[in-house]
Specification:
Blueprint lengths: L15 E2 L4 E7 L7 E6 L1 H7 L2 E9 L22 E3 L5 E2 L4 E7 L3 E5 L4 E6 L2 H4 L2 H5 L8 E5 L10 H10 L1
Antiparallel strand pairs: 1-2, 2-3, 3-10, 4-5, 4-7, 6-9, 7-8, 9-10
């Protein structure tokens, strides 16, 4: 975005945020081993990179995923990308690709913020990217996971996230 562009976006107060601009909402924390967490994409992604045109909930089949170079000749269709779709019950480790976001201006790859097991995927965001653009903190969530390691203090609260955004 040029300096003259201005895009207003919101930040939900009842969540934590990763440095990769994921929002994280603890759903059930009665017992740590039963805790589930809902994950979505902060509206900052749209403000920084343009409207989200596609969301893919996928992980790499091998390390070659991280060597993809985005070039002018790349098609808008990502079907040939070397990823496998995520499914309920899949395990993700830190640094495993979790979400690929195609915006009007760029492609953003987001890794899992913590080791976890997928409990539920919101396939609606893959079918309709407008959910992430217009309802990022509601119907635009991406997945629900069960963390294997959880430290809430590792993630930013609303005011810390705002401070972080002001620094970048």
């Amino acid at each position: 975005m040029s300096d003259g562009d201005f895009f207003e976006f919101s930040i939900a107060h009842d969540r934590r945020y990763s440095l990769d601009h994921l929002w994280i909402q603890v759903l059930d924390e009665k017992k740590e081993e039963d805790m589930t967490v809902k994950i979505g994409i902060s509206e900052f992604i749209r403000a920084e990179y343009g409207d989200i045109v596609r969301v893919v909930l996928a992980k790499p089949e091998d390390d070659s995923e991280f060597q993809i170079e985005v070039g002018e000749e790349e098609s808008e269709n990502d079907d040939d990308a070397p990823t496998s779709l995520l499914y309920r019950g899949d395990e993700l480790d830190v640094d495993d690709l979790m979400i690929t976001i195609r915006t009007s201006e760029d492609m953003v790859l987001i890794n899992a913020p913590f080791p976890c097991k997928i409990v539920e995927l919101n396939g609606d965001v893959e079918d309709n990217s407008d959910l992430v653009n217009e309802e990022a903190y509601h119907d635009g969530w991406c997945m629900i996971v069960k963390p294997h390691e959880w430290d809430e203090d590792q993630y930013l609260d609303q005011s810390e996230y705002i401070d972080y955004l002001n620094e970048i």
